[in-house]
Amino acid sequence: MSSKTKIFPTFAHMSKPVFKIINKSNNPLPQYATEGSSGMDIRAWLEAPLHLKPMERSLVSTGLFLELTEGYEVQVRPRSGLALKQGITCLNSPGTVDADYRGELKVILVNLSGETQIIESGDRIAQMVFAQVTMVALEETKEINETTRGTGGFGHTGKK
């Protein structure tokens, strides 16, 4: 175990799924920042700083390659501090990494601020949350059951 690997005592006794990861970057492996974190921080792997202009988006490399077990996915989500402080968030959020994907994990970042933002190699740019997936079968029909809500959506319950 590397000196950079964190094991939190509360979770040390719990059985956890283990997934293989290749790290071609010079960044540490993704890890949970705190004992109660749901997501592991992932970092940019860049040859040069990325100057992201207002409203510009870019596909950012991480150097990470995952082997997920069937029945799992990774959801790539924004980091709240990055969104609040710099206006940078993830597009296609949450992004889904399917169990059968073996390519590099990349993150679509967008700058929603009014100023150019700089992303450096090693910056924490997103988080990944591992989740179980339930596969379902669909049954085509001509009608579905009614509910009290019915077709109300997108703010139908009001503001207050």
The rounded Rg comes to: 19 Å
Spans where pLDDT lies below 50 across 5 or more residues:
none
Spatially, the strands of the biggest sheet line up as: 2-3-11-6-8
- How far is the N terminus from the C terminus? 52 Å
Shape-level CATH architecture: Distorted Sandwich
**SSE string, helix = H, strand = E?**
HEEEEEEHEEEEE
Determine the strand fraction and express it as a percent band.
35-45%
Number of strands: 11
Number of helices, where a helix is a run of at least 4 consecutive DSSP H or I residues: 2
Domain module tally: 1
Can you put this structure into words, describing what you see?
By secondary structure, this protein is mainly β. The chain has one domain (9-132): Deoxyuridine 5'-Triphosphate Nucleotidohydrolase, Chain A (Distorted Sandwich), CATH 2.70.40.10. Helix content is 7%, strand content 35%. The chain is built from two helices and eleven strands; from the N terminus they run H-E-E-E-E-E-E-H-E-E-E-E-E. The strands form three sheets. The protein has a five-stranded antiparallel β-sheet, with no helix packed on it. It has a four-stranded antiparallel β-sheet with strand order 1-5-9-7. The protein is globular, with a radius of gyration of 19 Å. The mean pLDDT is 91.
